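Handoff note, outgoing to incoming analyst
You'll be picking up this chain. Sequence as last confirmed:
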Amino acid sequence: MQFLRKYIATSLATHQERNLVIVNSLVRTLSGVAPLESCVGKFLGLAGLQFVKNIHSTTSMAKSKFEYVKQFEADDPCLQNCWIVVRIDGKAFHKFTDVHQYAKPNDDRGLGLMTKAAQVVMKEFNEIVLSYGQSDEYSFVFNKQAKVYNRRASKIMTNVVSLFASSFTFHWSSYFDQQQLQYPPSFDARIVLYPSDDNLKDYLSWRQADCHINNLYNTCFWTLIQEKGLTPAESQERLKGTLSGDKNEILFSEFNINYNNLPELYRKGSVLIRPKNRAGVDTVNSTNSVILHTDIIGKSFWEEYPYILDPKVLSYSS
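Most recent structure output, in case you need it:
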């Protein structure tokens, strides 16, 4: 159809006095109201008519009667001026970690592999400004002005989770060199929009608070099993109804473990951001990412890295 329009435009330039008549006729033809010959051949001549017929025939042949089904596809653009967050979670990872003999309560190999897969995703999608991961999940934050896939939610979500899952599998042997992958891991994903910076910060604070709560429980749970010989059921019963202070007390009084001295990787998770250059501004063309294990609930993180939320420096080029 583009060839037809170009040909028509050229011909119109030589028929200035009849432009209006030609345009009206062509509109009727393109909309299916009038036959091709009634308007094209009349004004463009036999050669023009044959050329347009060839183009029209080729275009028609390229389509099929089944193409109408495309009308059932839903367009799902993300709302403008919102942070786009894609969160992926491991599917049935309790079973997966047991089968693949993960160390409990934290396996540095598994956590490192998750972060490696996240780095691959950040390298591919340069509009991601920050990623946060803990346990078997990772959240990817696209900037408010992101244009990737025309902001189609399904395209963004499926591409992120599929790349993450394939990268997890691809790099498995680099982290688990003595443990063969027994079956393909899978991850689910969801996409959530946050309209304000405070909403986004609260979301990330929620995920980091979840990291602390889960890790404190798992540390107590597995320490009771590994150091005291309790069964999983007995350990679970021992911790029923306990608060954070109670768990800290169990670790310190019974096992001489100060929870606050455990690696920040376990207690705070992993934060991936773009590196800063010497001027203190985010490196625009960087495909690398800096891994931090730090608090993102308080103000200090956002004061130290203000460019993450600053829309003026979020235009990453590939």
